[in-house]
Amino acid sequence: MLFPIFVVTTLLEIYVLASVGDAIGGFATVLLVIITALIGSTLLKHQGWSTLAKAQNIAANGQTPALEILEGVVILVSGVLLLTPGFITDTIGLLGLIPFSRTYFINRILQKNAQQFLNQQNTVFIYKTRSSNAKQNKKTDKNNTIEGEFWED
Fold first, then answer.
1. Is residue 82 packed enough to be buried (19+ CB in 10 Å), middle (13-18) or exposed (0-12)?
2. Most CB atoms within 10 A, among 6, 7, 71, 121?
3. Considering the entire predicted model, what is its pTM?
4. Closest CA relative to residue 20, chosen from 34, 7, 8, 33
5. Which tens digit of pLDDT belongs to each residue from 40-53?
């Protein structure tokens, strides 16, 4: 499924770059791609450090920074898109760095995958070693504590 997306995106990027280059010139197009990459890298650095600081703050308060981890993933993907030359990928990457659109992306990902997470079968594995002496096993079995998780659907 990803391969067709990469092929179509690459072809669209080539078409857009050629169209923009035809309209404003090749040198101006390359310069514009470089400027968008510089602006994007500056935003990437700022948003990355901001999200890291929020995650550390939340972790220091004893909470799990789950939303901040998801924000970090969106920021990482946005950074990769910004490093890819082209106007379409730069636009999507810049949208991933804007806080309100990043929240929209995270909500869409969670909505799309929530059912998959909720229907996932949870299994607990217990590993217990056995010694060769059966009498010793009977004595130690009474003192063993078994920990596990139970999920009810």
1. buried
2. 71
3. 0.67
4. 33
5. 888 889 988 999 99
